[in-house]
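To: structure subgroup
Subject: Chain for Friday's discussion

All,

I'm putting the inputs and outputs inline so they're searchable in the archive.
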Amino acid sequence: MISRLKLRIRLRRTILWILIGLWAWGPLIGEDRIELKSGITLSGDVISITESAVTLEITAGTRKLTRRYPLDRIKAVTVDGARRTFESPSSRTDQEESPPPRPTEPPTRSGMIQRSEAEVTRVINQQGRKPPSWYSKTSLDFPDTLDLSWPNSKPPTWNYTQHVEHYIWDIINSNRSRYGNGVRFMHHLLEVNQDQPDILRKVMNELGRMYFEFFDDYARAAFWWQRANVTTSKALRTTDSPARLAECYWRLGNRRLAETTLEAIPLTFGVIKLWGDLMETDRAVALTQSGLEEGLEASELYVLAGDALRTAERYDQSIVYYRKALELEAAGSHREQIERNQRRAQGTIELIELFDQLKFTDVSDGEYRDQSYGYAGNVSLRTTMAAGQLTAIHITSLSDKQYYHAVDATIHKILKRQTVQGIDAVSGATVTSEAVIRATAKALAQGTR
């Protein structure tokens, strides 16, 4: 029989090996992982997975670093123990093919990971409560003449050196190099307006927009929109912020939470667009009718219905709605909006007519230029085809400088998918995003063999 002393020794050894194992593997337990095609594996917290890249926050000593890795460099991503591969189907052999597991939620076109509501909440709180890695290196730089109290009253004259919203529009939004400065400035406004709840709510809402639009940082965007109470605030409830918060939930991996949020907020253009992006096409179209009954601007509703149907590749039906927008009289207080939507509708009808004949593999190698009307003027670009692939899209002229983020995102989608079909416009900058899609299609059509 084994003596008690030997049993104690064996028990201690077992405990020791368990502790050694926990020490060795502890950094990986509960952490997300990115497996690169180069063979390197990175551990940390996955902040977001978009159609273009995976954003990972890692710890290096005492520092937190945020890194973005393009999907074409990634073999697989593991989040909360669930591993998803990003290998293209053509890289697998027939023997490796197997039916995909049944998803717990409806699949999305962008192939996003799936998280439970509790997991999404954890990610939002975990990332939102700490600044991004670049924050400490970003300077606080703004005109001394700015009124930092950011009054709710509409400024009498346009002056970016005095009024916060004008400074954001003219200086922050239109300069990609100032995006980080904009976030830093918003945090400064939180400090100087601590005793002004209405102003704080407005600042938090703007922080949500900046993280969402500038950085695709859906966790931090959701964190600040939640703190601003955008789904219940009287001042913000009818803006597009609540719908964008719902989009954050979707992008972070929980479609059901996004849908629940959409169902609980007032009807806005953003709500309709997101239902369309979720491929709930019939619901999006039906909501445009509800919007007409509620008095929302008709040309915008018709274009949104057309967009939802076009994204679902129901082209004949989409043209019907675009033509409804064209039939409206451009008059009254919404004249400029109607004219802008009519230009979009006409341009998109022309784009649809190109779909049947435009295949990137049929475009001759070379450079092709064209343009399409955006929000404030034409978006002009140059495309480059090489060996049957669209290799580059360069913007040569852009009037919509406040929407650089949408231009970059749309170009990446087109290059990644090698098509202009089924490209969904960027939330909050639909007009500019659609202009890039149309101009690209028109340019490439010149080289069709």
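Points worth raising on Friday:
The beta strands are 32-36, 41-49, 53-60, 63-70, 74-79, 82-85, 366-373, 378-386, 389-398.
The mean pLDDT is 81.

D.
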